[in-house]
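Hello K.,

You asked for the raw outputs rather than the summary table, so here they are, unedited. I folded two proteins back to back in the same session to keep the settings identical. This is the first:
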Amino acid sequence: MKVAHVTAPLRVLVVKLSSLGDVVHTLPAAMDIHANCPNAQIDWVVESSFAPIVKACSAVHRVIACDLRRWRKNMWAQDTRESWRAFLAELHQERYDAIIDLQGLTKSALVSWLAHTASRGKRFAMAHATDGSAYERPTRWVADVAIDVEPHIHAMTRGRLMCAKALHYEVPSLLQYGLNPSKNKQHPVTQNGKNLVVFVHGTSRADKEWPLANWHALGLRLSDEGYQIVLPHGNEEERLRSVAMAEMIPHAIVWPRMTIDDLMQAMASTVGVVGVDSGLSHIAVALNLPHVQIYNFDTAWRTGPIGNAHEKIRQRSVVDFPTPSVDAVWSLWQECMA
């Protein structure tokens, strides 16, 4: 009897711990591995806050969540020691043919070093810093192979190139994120509304914010066109701003505070998004929603939307100092919706 040949899986560990936008920008790298190495089993170490996004990626086999940020603040606490041991036990369930550190920081180097390689497995990391991105030397000390990348490069492209060089394939022309929430499975906050447009106004940096008066003026224009504005928030300060904006824009709704996976599902059922440079804005891009991303300084080359060349452009970035005008954002919104 002829026995069918079974190809052993290629076990790959991606290390990209945070933040939300950086994790979203890494999803295409996982999709590239899946497309070019059909036998790949991709595991991913990520901070637990962002684990729902990685779990939603169709290319990822197993998500290994950690809480390094919290553990560092309470290193000697009993629950920290117990959580650390549980994390190591999960991390050590597999031996990996390739461990790819896409973070380039001491904390990601630590995770890469703690993970186990197979007999011929290797650890890969960036050989140097790239423009506008943090980099720490331990990432190279831990690596068996340090990969050179061009210094002036988009964050998403950097991760895709690193994985392609580590696993010996060409970066695909097709850009995929692998997030496919069902349009028919509406979140409760979108069931009673049509033509919803999300205003992503919250950001961890004050210099990335767009003036409240601009949000007001844009909201009035969209309302006049028959759209209804919805306002998410992630903390009390953002909630208060959402409430203030809702009072100024006819029929605007403040969404309840939601988990990342709930927000992703809710956003997927909307018409589109206007937002500042933030993790939620990058999720909008990954969902292929019409989206205008607002920048007060020129970092759009590094984190802004990148589309497939053969597709209609559905996401645009707008950059100006001290901040883009309402007219500029409105013009790009109309182009995204055309």
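The second followed immediately with the same parameters:
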Amino acid sequence: MILIPLVVAVVLVSLTLWLANWLLLSRHPELGNERRFSRQIGMLALTVAGLIAIILTLPVDASTRNQIIGLVGLLLSGVVAFSSTNIVANLMAGLMLRMTRSFRTGDYIRIEEQFGRVAERGLFDTEIQTETRELISVPNTYLISRPHTVVRASGTIVSTSLSLGYDVHHSRIEELLPKAAEQCGLSDCFVHILELGDFSITYRVSGLLTDVKKLLTTRSNLRRSVLDVLHEANIEIVSPAFMNQRPIIDGTKFIPARYRKSVATPVPIAEEIAFDKAEQAEQLETQRHELEKEISDLEARLKEAVDDDKQALSDEIEQVRQELSQLGAQAKNNSQEA
């Protein structure tokens, strides 16, 4: 008889935790790591509360019960103290990153020498897909302890630099380079003179790219366009210190002859290959937000609908929820395959 309260407490706590896990996590496989994070924190708090509830029903006197609670508190404090540089530190860093919202899934990000797109934001680390299609897991403490650069979704500046001799007037270069930038889809183009060297002038041409998903391709296209425009203007891209051991005729310019491809072959888009997981993650997150908004709108209409329309709206809500569930299963499969 003395163990009945303890047994009842264990059963109730177990059922409560199972039900909470089903309601918060298992029932919603479509939730990504962003939405699961707060629910996982809630489950952790419920587990601690359930443990305290079980301790309170132990068949011991009050002083012993208080000692056990104190011991549990000491153990939790020890876990926090000894794990502060690892698990708990990354957990707190993850909370901080979500509060500051410095980046989101799909954004381009640079952390020191690492550059890529955010493929997944986890509880303890952030996964970045690099230009070589590799996946790098960066601890959240690493992110908050070092400056990171995020490419704005509204657009970014794309630029390239080159050195030209003093024999070409800078005004001519400042007219040609913006044309090269405009040819590859950049807007608001401008040119800066970076350095006056001993033998050459260093120029930098820049422009605004609004479609940031084409960042890698646009950088390459800008360099190609600069070559084409300057060569067509009969300007050689070579330093005055250039030396060649072959005998040449005076006045020879080192500009390659115009080359025309015999067959136009489709060129693969680098971003689609390099950042496939990040792109899929961004698309799935966008679709999930759209479906959730659609469900919210349908539920609002359901409250105001008459009896004849309620069944149709309920069926439509259920259909959208099934699509949302399938989206979550697809995101989970994509994560496992990667």
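The mean pLDDT is 79.

Happy to rerun anything if the numbers look odd on your end.

Regards,
P.
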